[in-house]
Specification:
By secondary structure, the protein is mainly beta. The protein is built from one helix and 15 strands. The radius of gyration is 18 Å and the shape is globular. The relative contact order is 0.18.
């Protein structure tokens, strides 16, 4: 019962904050970097090249590493995009290195995509079931402008297990709301894991991510962006709270 009240309160907080500042909306932040990713236009093709520096690598309420560098390389054409994203620890070299490839398509507010996650604990070119360190995930969502919803499900690879020891088809659902307040761009989000999986360390329906992040975008010479961000992320399931901060540089 307490969990249900917590979810309702969290969703109400997100909606209230959004309605309070709905006259100053921004595009939703990128899920990984917590900052908007500007695209350079050329011949109808959008290009994205950048790198983030973060004090902690926190993803969907999970602690995946300490101080990290996270490069991004992407290309977009008429709503179709291909993006490579990586993370490497620079304060703890035992942190797993990560390389993600995402193929996505968006039209108006609707978006759909497939991501191949790979971690350095195994060979990149090992795809055999039971031995691969790749995880393949599909997502679908809709951005209403004042509110964005996303659903993610692992459908192949090194997925977690459910209570019966079988593939969990680990899933994650998130509601996020961007708004502008006090001269800063903000993003509030609530993330839920609907059922048991070892991927998210859950035994059933759980709230794993409640976050609030603020970003200030500094423009250098009118064309280079340097967003600096800070925020709080709570994982009620694991009873953990993180203070995150970082900076991005995107050409």
């Amino acid at each position: 019962m307490k969990t249900k009240y917590f979810i309702l309160l969290s969703l109400l907080s997100v909606t209230t904050l959004n309605l309070f500042a709905q006259d100053n909306l921004q595009a939703p932040a990128d899920e990984r970097s917590e900052t908007p990713l500007p695209l350079r236009e050329g011949a109808g093709v959008g290009l994205n090249l950048g790198i983030d520096l973060v004090n902690q690598y926190i993803w969907r309420g999970q602690d995946l590493g300490d101080v990290s560098l996270q490069p991004t390389l992407g290309i977009e054409w008429k709503g179709l995009s291909l993006t490579a994203w990586g993370s490497v620890g620079i304060s703890d070299f035992t942190d797993d290195k990560e390389l993600d490839l995402t193929l996505a398509y968006s039209i108006k507010g609707f978006n759909v995509g497939i991501t191949d996650y790979w971690f350095s604990k195994g060979s990149y070119f090992q795809y055999k079931s039971g031995e691969t360190s790749h995880i393949w995930e599909a997502n679908v969502g809709y951005d209403f402008g004042f509110l964005s919803i996303q659903w993610y499900t692992n459908f192949a690879g090194d997925d977690g297990k459910n209570k019966d020891g079988k593939r969990a088809y680990s899933s994650y659902f998130e509601v996020s709301a961007p708004f502008r307040l006090g001269g800063l761009d903000w993003s509030a989000a609530v993330g839920i894991v609907p059922y048991a999986t070892t991927t998210y360390n859950t035994n059933g329906f759980s709230v794993t991510n409640v976050s609030l992040c603020a970003t200030k975008d500094f423009v250098i010479k009118k064309k280079h962006h340097l967003p600096v961000f800070a925020g709080l992320t709570a994982n009620p399931r694991d009873e953990r709270l993180f203070l995150i901060c970082g900076a991005s540089f995107h050409l």
